[in-house]
Write a structure and sequence with these properties.
The complex is a heterodimer of chains A (252) and B (421). Helix content of chain A is 79%, strand content 0%. Chain A is mostly helical and 252 residues long. The longest helix of chain A has 33 residues, at 36-68. Chain A starts with a helix and ends in an 11-residue tail after the last helix. With 421 residues, chain B is mainly alpha-helical. Chain B has one domain. Chain B contains 14 helices and 4 strands. In chain B, a hairpin with a 2-residue loop joins strand 1 (164-167) and strand 2. Classes of the chains: A mainly alpha (252), B mainly alpha (421).
Chain lengths: 252, 421
């Protein structure tokens, strides 16, 4: 059961980093991908239909930690609380920028929301980079909580930009995507790297000591296994519905 | 752990959960009403006729208010989920093995599907077959209810821990059925479900009253909306109080007072040593406030029942319109007061009779607790301010200013072009 729960946690975390990593990266690169507010609205429209369905992978991953590995909660959130706070605040700021941008017609408002999306995306990516770095170093015996990896991991945030540019290349209108021709970004390659990151970071964690005792572990793991195919189908439905290049702004 | 940091963590959670719930209450009820409106629009659309247009427009107008409201619910919910780990590590260490399971189910089974389908609903308006699009909003509604149920299973376990055993100082889940069927969870779910409908009913009726009072056109649109709101209020006002009252059978003895409370205090003192085992007076104040709000709403529901059979009568009556506008906050006040009664009344326990609140808080230290408190409080204040302003703005603007469901590439409707900042 424990093994199953670890696998599920890896799948959901990797799912988050691969799927949401793309839209976080696009958010980070928003000022470069779109020139002017109209173009930026198109850039946001490129991932708008996906971002809700992407971030839920992380919510579910946190759910698996809470349900199956309560002993890890304090290690991930309490010991690394500065990183966790940056991550959550960045997430909230970014989402609010996205939700609010299209709701008021004013250049200042849109500029402020674009700023929130960019700043929030960077905070989110740097938070993840620091979290992954801390876990890798701590897994190698470098001490729990904040450690050298918390700082050394920060450059990993570039992975998100790389992945985001790869996403933008096939979602943006031809003319805008053409500007990215020279960037060596391949969505498939960066996806594999991002999917491997949580596996590397989680390898050194003490899973057995952290697992829930009793039926809580089984309930969580089985629910995740049973629902995963359905969730994957739903995700596929989203991708199929919004396939192809974006041509017009969306609700956001 | 200093007392100040404990208080900060408690107030922070109260603010987060309170803010979250204000938005969730409307989300739950309004999702249902929007789903019903869209059902009507979709079914009528097949037959043609003039009714089709108004129901489709109602779906988009109330749907947009729903989406604006949902966004705050979602981000406050994220912060709440993380706060368990950030501020209440003692809880995850001791009882996480039980308390975490319903939260995990909420994220995987309910929220995941709810949010993904909502994205499809918002952005797929003109792309998807209309029956598929209708099915999406129903999935969103059902999973929103499922989500509320699982969260209340977690909360119900804090109120009345069942189906577990303590081994080596940690709780382990032994009976999943007892956990999922815990009366404080199941009854509270029904209570919250009808409370959400009541919130949405008063919201829809109040906004409609605002427009009917102005007599600025759209009379049919808002007469129909007013009827939807009032019917919802009338239908929910009795179930909400019945399901609330039914929970008293399983209420904690210290919350109720009387001889049972004395016996419970004696038992706790014998087991856990002397402490203040009676809940703060704030709990009773919450109970009284909730019930008086219900009494006010019940009076309005009776008035609504008298008016409802006469459609044209809903368009007139300035006093009636002003009262309905003023009534929008009533269910919100009742909801928050109810949560104060439920949660403050459980103190000093985090998990009743198992884990005290002060033993559940994290060891983050006073500075970290203060920083986290300040950051999230400021963030939330801004969020709530902006979103309440937006809700009011879109509600005032009426169906002409809706951006939701506008075909891709089309210019936004003219009122949206008027700069207001």
């Amino acid at each position: 059961m424990e093994f199953l729960a670890v696998v599920m946690l890896a799948v959901f975390t990797a799912g988050y980093l691969v799927l949401a990593g793309g839209d976080v990266g696009v958010g980070m690169a928003l000022p470069w991908l779109g020139r002017g507010q109209d173009e930026r609205r198109l850039v946001i429209a490129s991932f708008a239909p996906f971002f809700l369905g992407n971030e839920v992978w992380l919510v579910a991953a946190v759910g698996i930690v809470v349900g199956a590995f309560p002993g890890l909660e304090h290690r991930l959130l309490e010991d690394l609380s500065p990183v966790a706070v940056v991550l959550v605040v960045g997430w909230v700021v970014r989402d609010m920028g996205l939700w609010l941008r299209g709701r008021v017609d004013g250049a200042g408002w849109r500029g402020g929301c674009d700023g929130a999306v960019v700043a929030g995306s960077w905070a989110l990516a740097l938070g993840w980079a620091s979290l992954l770095g801390s876990l890798v170093v701590s897994g190698a015996g470098g001490g729990e909580g904040m450690n050298a990896g918390s700082v050394l991991g920060l450059p990993l945030a570039a992975l998100f930009v790389w992945h985001g540019v790869g996403f933008a290349r096939w979602r943006l209108p031809e003319a805008m995507a053409a500007r990215l021709r020279g960037v060596p970004a391949r969505y498939g390659v960066s996806a594999v790297v991002l999917a491997a990151a949580p596996v590397a970071a989680g390898a050194g964690l003490p899973w057995s000591g952290a697992a829930a005792q009793g039926s809580g572990l089984a309930l969580t793991a089985v629910a995740a296994v049973v629902l995963l195919p359905l969730l994957a189908v739903v995700q596929g439905l989203v991708w199929w519905t919004f396939r192809g290049r974006v041509q017009a702004p969306s609700y956001l | 752990m200093s007392g100040d940091a404990l208080m900060l963590a408690r107030v922070q959670f109260a603010l987060t959960a309170g803010t979250h719930f204000l938005f969730v209450a409307l989300t739950l009820g309004l999702a249902t009403l929007v789903a019903l409106m869209q059902t009507r629009a979709t079914v009528w659309g097949g037959a043609g006729g003039s009714g089709e247009a108004v129901h489709a427009r109602m779906t988009r107008f109330w749907g947009q208010l729903y989406v604006v409201n949902y966004a705050v619910g979602i981000v406050t919910g994220l912060v709440m989920e993380f706060q368990f780990g950030l501020n209440w590590a003692g809880m995850s260490r001791t009882v996480g093995g039980v308390f975490g399971a319903p939260l995990a189910l909420e994220t995987i089974v309910a929220f995941f599907v709810e949010s993904t389908f909502l994205g499809l609903w918002i952005f797929g308006w003109e792309r998807l077959n209309r029956w598929v699009h209708l099915a999406l909003i129903w999935v969103v509604t059902v999973t929103a209810y499922l989500s509320a149920y699982f969260v209340l299973v977690a909360n119900g376990w804090l109120q009345r821990p069942v189906g577990y055993e303590m081994r080596d100082g940690r709780a382990r889940l032994t009976d999943v059925g007892a956990l999922l069927g815990n009366p404080p969870a199941v009854l509270a779910f029904g209570h919250v479900l009808f409370g959400g409908l009541l919130t949405a009913g008063f919201f829809v009726a109040g906004v409609s009253a605002f427009h009917l009072r102005r007599r600025a056109g759209e009379t049919e649109f808002f007469r129909r909306s007013m009827r939807v709101g009032l019917v919802t209020v009338v239908a929910s006002i009795v179930p909400v109080v019945v399901l609330g009252g039914a929970q008293f059978a399983d209420l904690q003895p210290t919350k109720l007072g009387g001889d049972d409370a004395d016996a419970a205090v004696a038992a706790f003192t014998a087991r856990f040593g002397p402490d203040d085992y009676r809940p703060p007076g704030l709990s009773e104040a919450g109970e009284a406030l909730m019930m008086s709000m219900w009494a006010l709403m019940a009076v309005l529901a009776v008035a609504a029942l008298v008016k409802l059979p006469f459609g044209r009568w809903l368009e007139r009556g300035r006093v009636f319109h002003v009262v309905m506008i003023a009534a929008i906050p009533l269910p919100y006040v009742a909801m928050l007061a109810g949560w104060v009664f439920r949660e403050v009344g459980r103190q000093p326990w985090m998990v009743y009779g198992v884990l005290k609140t002060r033993d559940a808080v994290s060891d983050t230290g006073a500075v970290a607790a203060a920083v986290s408190f300040a950051v999230f409080t400021v963030l939330f204040a801004v969020l709530v301010g902006v979103n309440v302003w937006l809700l009011a703005r879109f509600a005032r603007r009426g169906p002409g200013g809706v951006g939701l469901g506008v075909p891709a590439g089309a210019a936004p409707p003219s009122p949206a072009l008027s700069p207001t900042l």
